[in-house]
Amino acid sequence: MIRLAKAMPGVAVGEIVRVLADDPAAANDIPAWCRMKGQEFVAADGHAFDVRRLS
């Protein structure tokens, strides 16, 4: 989560960040972080989570 939060300011609006996480809590934490921060949780595939920067 910390790395995702630090990476987002360097990502252009509309771009997607892929997060690779082996922590089982990431499946809940990443979508929750997206809701809190106004970003779009796009998809999850195993240990990969895609987040689109909206603002």
What Rg, in angstroms, do the CA atoms define? 10 Å
Assign an overall shape.
globular
Classified by CATH, the class is Alpha Beta
Share in helix: 25-40%
Tell me the strand percentage band.
25-35%
Distance between the termini: 17 Å
Biggest β-sheet, characterized? Answer: 3 strands, antiparallel
- How many structural domains? 1
Number of strands: 3
Structural class: alpha+beta
- Output the helix-strand order: HEHEE
Number of helices: 2
CATH topology: Translation Initiation Factor IF3
CATH H level: which superfamily? TusA-like domain
Kindly report the spatial arrangement of strands forming the biggest sheet.
Answer: 1-3-2
InterPro entries: TusA-like, TusA-like_sf
Domain UPF0033: 2-45
Pfam families: TusA (PF01206)
Organism: Actinoplanes xinjiangensis
Characterize this entry briefly.
The protein has 55 residues and is α+β, with helices and mostly antiparallel strands.
